[in-house]
Amino acid sequence: MKTNDPAIVNAMELLKEARELSKAGTELETEAKAVLDEQVRQKGIKSVAGGGLILTLTESAASRFDTKSFRKEYPDMAAKFTKTSNSVIYNLKEAV
Questions:
Q1: Which H, E and C letters describe 25-58, residue by residue?
Q2: Quick one: average pLDDT of 20-44?
Q3: What sign has the CA pseudo-torsion 20, 26, 27, 28?
């Protein structure tokens, strides 16, 4: 289906722009963290002030539940306790 509905076209363009901004933001954050890891974290600095900002590093151990292994080991129990939900995924690509 093709549309010229301005509300739909505008929303699609906004979604595309938001995703591009999000990607750019993630890339900038990755770059900044790499510099901070090298210049701050590896030197053992826990807090630093500069440029009107204060950076505080807090390290934490994270754990997560290994769902794949649990399903493999206990398929009946996994099926019993797995909840399903419906969601909508908005895929965008350039029209050719």
A1: HHHHHHHHHHHHHHHCHHHCCCEEEECCEEEECC
A2: 95
A3: positive
CB atoms within 10 A of CB 43: 8
Q: What is the DSSP letter of 89?
A: -
Strands (E), the chain: 47-50, 53-56
- Are 55 and 48 spatial neighbours (Cβ–Cβ below 8 Å)? yes
Q: Please say if the pLDDT value at position 59 is more than 90.
A: no
User: pTM, whole model, 2 decimals?
Assistant: 0.68
Asked if residues 16 and 92 have their Cβ atoms less than 8 Å apart, the reply is: yes
Residues in the chain: 96
Q: Which residues contact 53 (CB under 8 A, 6 or more apart)?
A: none
